[in-house]
Amino acid sequence: MKKYSAELLGTFVLTLFGCGSAAIAGQTLGTLGIAFAFGLSIVAMAYAIGNVSGCHINPAVSLGVWMSGKMTGKDFAGYVIAQFIGATLAALVLMVIINCANLGGIAATGLGTNGYGSMSSVGLNACGALLVEIILTAVFVLTILGVTDGEKTSVIAGLVIGLTLTFVHIMGIPLTGTSVNPARSFGPALFVGGKALCQLWVFIIGPAIGAVLAAWMWRSFKTK
Questions:
Q1: What is the pLDDT along the chain (224 residues), one digit of tens a residue?
Q2: Helices then strands (H, E): number in the chain?
Q3: How large is the angle between the packed helices 182-192 and 2-53, nearest 10 degrees?
Q4: What's the CA gap between 157 and 142, in Å, rounded?
Q5: Domain 2-222: CATH superfamily, name plus number
Q6: Where are the domains of the chain?
């Protein structure tokens, strides 16, 4: 239960601070600022809970780790459930904070939801959004599998993973808002509803496919 509680906490922090930065101060921070908010959240949590759960805080990461043979099916299920709960609680807290401020409510701020079409800054269509999420997630998960594989790199894993999440956000934010994390997308979409909820399938399927591809590539690289 300590591992699952750590995953819940970590996903809560990532969603609250990442999505909160986008929803509350997105226009001020811009793409780079929001990207660093997500990346730094990962860095902080990696060093806070990494020794407890490995700090996946993302169902796509847990899927990649499981398919790489580095965790059991029971832990995979427990991690994913905890991650979705953490993201949902974070979105609820963020909604309360926004409703207590003069920001126009969740309709105006969007709670940091992901989207395509009219919800994309560049009007990216559904096929394009799915492709983007697959590629960005594959790169992100592959990096995690690589940097956590040996003792030499594990000490800097948190920093590397945080910076990688930052750079995939730099490209992805104008396109889809960048998910690469089904739980992070689910929480805000659940409360915003409408198009955000209808388009959620892209941000569950895309990261899942990306994680599977990353695990396949990693296993291929490791095969001698």
A1: 899 999 999 999 999 999 999 999 988 999 999 999 999 999 999 999 999 999 999 999 999 999 999 999 999 999 999 999 999 999 999 999 999 999 999 988 999 999 999 999 999 999 999 999 999 999 999 999 999 987 778 789 999 999 999 999 999 999 999 999 999 999 999 999 999 999 999 999 999 999 999 999 999 987 65
A2: 10, 0
A3: 140
A4: 13
A5: Glycerol uptake facilitator protein. (1.20.1080.10)
A6: 2-222
| Residues 14, 9: Cα–Cα separation, whole Å | 9
- Say how far apart CA 68 and CA 73 lie, in whole Å: 12
Q: Map 162-189 to HEC letters.
A: HHHHHHHHHHHHHHHCCCCCHHHHHHHH
Which token pair is 90? 């974070």
125 token code pair:
């269509």
Structure-token pair, residue 62: 């847990």
Crossing angle for the helix pair 126-147 and 157-176, to the nearest 10 degrees: 180
From the list 137, 203, 125, 130, the residue with the least C-alpha distance to 168 is 137
Question: Alpha-carbon distance 122 to 38, whole Å?
Answer: 21
Predicted TM-score (pTM) of this structure: 0.94
